[in-house]
Write a structure and sequence with these properties.
This protein folds into two domains: 7-202, Jelly Rolls; 210-340, Arc Repressor Mutant, subunit A. 40% of the residues lie in helices and 22% in strands. The chain contains 13 helices and 14 strands. A seven-stranded antiparallel β-sheet has the order 1-3-4-11-6-9-13, with helices on both faces. Strand 3 and strand 4 (55-62) form a beta hairpin. Helix 5 (210-224) packs across helix 6. The longest helix is centred in the middle third of the chain and has 19 residues, at 181-199.
C-alpha cells in the first residue's frame, strides 16, 4: 500500500450538534471574527484539508457569514502566509481588503495577504478551495507588490492556468505521497508567484504593521541559526536592532523569544529522530545537538510539546515515516497545520 498524506475532515451540523456554531467560532477565532448571516439552527460547515510540505490546501462548504480579520488577529498570528481562494461554485460576496473593494462578480480567484486586514461578507452559501502558502516560498520579486484582495478571473490566461492547477491538485491530492508533497508545494508556490506578479501593483512602504515585520524577520533569523549554540534572545535582539522591551513585545504572539527558539529546536529534533539512520545518535546526543544540556530537560520539554517522549517516538519512527509524519505534519487538524506553517 502506497503512502498517503495526512487528511483532516471536519464536519459540523447544528441539526445534529447543538454546539456546532460554538465549535466553529472557537476554531476560527485565531484567524477571523465570524458573524453568522443565516439562522443558527441551519448552520453547517464542511472542511477537508491536506498538508503538502509547507503548503496547506483545503476545501470548505459553508453558509452565509461575515469574516473579519482585524489587526488583533494579525498581531496574534505568528505565521506569515498568503492565501489564494478559488470559488468552485458561484457565490455572492463583497469584501474590503485593507481599503481595496472586491466582489464575486470580478472573478473566481482572489489573493489575500494574511498580514493585512480584511472584511468579507458572503451573502450566499459557498464552496471554495483555499491554498495557504508561507510568504517565504514565493518568488522574491513579489515582495515589492501590493496584491492584497486582487481578483483574477479564470477567463484570463493566468487565471485559467492557476485555477486549473488548483482544481487538478485537489482532484489528485489523495494520490500524492509525502515524498512528492514538497515538490508539489514548490510548483504550486511558483504558480502563485506568477499570479501575484501578473496582478500585483508596485507599492511604496510595507503596509504590514512594524511589529509583524520584525516578528517575521526574527523568526527567520532563528530558523537560520538553530544549530548555533550561542543563539539566544540577545542575538535575536541584536539582529533586529531593537530594545529588550520591544523584542519581548514583538515575540509575544509567539509565546516569547526563548519559548520560540526552544519550540523550533524541538521541531528540528523531532524530525532528526524520525530520519532514517537517526538511530546512530543517542537521544541524549540529539537533545544536546539541539540546545539541551540535560537529557531529562530534553525529554520533559519534548513530551510537553508533542505528547510523546523521544524514546517512544523512536520506537514508532518507522511507522511514522511510512505515514509521512514530520514536524510540519504533526497537528491532526487543518487549523493547527496553518498555525504551524
Amino acid at each position: 500500500m502506497s503512502e498517503r498524506l495526512n487528511r483532516d475532515l471536519w464536519v459540523l451540523d447544528a441539526r445534529e450538534q447543538p454546539d456546532a456554531l460554538e465549535q466553529y467560532r472557537k476554531a476560527c477565532a485565531h484567524l477571523f471574527d465570524v458573524t453568522l448571516l443565516s439562522p443558527e439552527e441551519t448552520f453547517h460547515n464542511r472542511l477537508e484539508g491536506y498538508q503538502l510540505g509547507h503548503v496547506v490546501i483545503m476545501r470548505c462548504v459553508g453558509v452565509p457569514q461575515r469574516f473579519e480579520r482585524k489587526l488583533t488577529h494579525i498581531m496574534a498570528d505568528s505565521t506569515d502566509t498568503i492565501m489564494a481562494v478559488l470559488d468552485l461554485e458561484k457565490a455572492d460576496w463583497r469584501a474590503d481588503y485593507d481599503g481595496r473593494e472586491a466582489a464575486s462578480d470580478m472573478g473566481d480567484i482572489r489573493v489575500v495577504d494574511m498580514a493585512r486586514p480584511s472584511d468579507l461578507i458572503s451573502k450566499t452559501d459557498y464552496c471554495t478551495l483555499y491554498l495557504i502558502v508561507p510568504r517565504s516560498l514565493l518568488d522574491p520579486q513579489t515582495a515589492g507588490l501590493d496584491f492584497h484582495g486582487r481578483i483574477m478571473p479564470e477567463t484570463t490566461p493566468t487565471g485559467r492556468i492557476f485555477g486549473s492547477h488548483l482544481r487538478t491538485l485537489w482532484a489528485s491530492v489523495e494520490e500524492i505521497t509525502p515524498a512528492e508533497a514538497p515538490l508539489v508545494a514548490k510548483a504550486t508556490a511558483a504558480l502563485l508567484s506568477g499570479l501575484i506578479l501578473a496582478c500585483g501593483d508596485p507599492m511604496g512602504a510595507d503596509p504590514r504593521p512594524l511589529e509583524k515585520v520584525l516578528l517575521i524577520s526574527g523568526q527567520r533569523f532563528v530558523d537560520q541559526h538553530l544549530d548555533d549554540p550561542d543563539l539566544s534572545p540577545d542575538t535575536v535582539r541584536r539582529h533586529l536592532a531593537v530594545s529588550r522591551s520591544q523584542l519581548y513585545k514583538v515575540f509575544e504572539p509567539a509565546g516569547g523569544v526563548s519559548a520560540f527558539i526552544q519550540q523550533r529546536r524541538l521541531d528540528r529534533a523531532f524530525d532528526v529522530i524520525l530520519q532514517d539512520g537517526a538511530e546512530q545518535l543517542t537521544l541524549a546526543e540529539v537533545g544536546y545537538n539541539h540546545g539541551f544540556r540535560s537529557n531529562a530537560h530534553f525529554s520533559r520539554a519534548f513530551r510537553a510539546r508533542f505528547g510523546v517522549t523521544p524514546g517512544r517516538l523512536r520506537k514508532v519512527g518507522e511507522a511514522a515515516r511510512q505515514e509521512g509524519l514530520s514536524a510540519q505534519e504533526r497537528p491532526d487538524d487543518v487549523f493547527a497545520w496553518v498555525k504551524g506553517l
